[in-house]
Amino acid sequence: MSYRNLQIWQLARLLVIDVHNMSLNLPVFEKFEVGSQIRRSVKSVKSNIVEGYGRRRYKQEYIRFMVFALSSNDETIDHLETLYETKSLKNEELYQDLHKRTKQLGIKINNFLQSIEKNHNKFDDLNDYMDTK
């Protein structure tokens, strides 16, 4: 079993790619301000999922890193909204897509976190959150 099988990691991975690409098309002044911040926050979501998974034997550590992932996801949503509201991100369709996917990821991370809190010693129950394709 690998963190790569986690649905939340897979969703985060795709968001990292898409947010990164979106940020490179921002106005020059935003690439190094909010663009840099949003790239770091979305990459932090994925990295914290990986680090938490690596510490999954220790319930409190696992929870801690999933909370970090959720917090970074919230930060990403905030940066995305700021970019759109300030018209630095003008493509409404792209904004709506990224916003929707980021919010959905937050819901999934939260559900995963609740599952860890309730079923930490029942790793089989966590397989509901794994994509074993």
UniProtKB/TrEMBL annotation:
Pfam family, one: 23S_rRNA_IVP
Signal peptide (from-to): none
Domain of life: Bacteria
GO CC terms, sorted: ribosome
Keywords associated with the record: Ribonucleoprotein, Ribosomal protein
PANTHER family: FOUR HELIX BUNDLE PROTEIN
Protein name as catalogued: S23 ribosomal protein
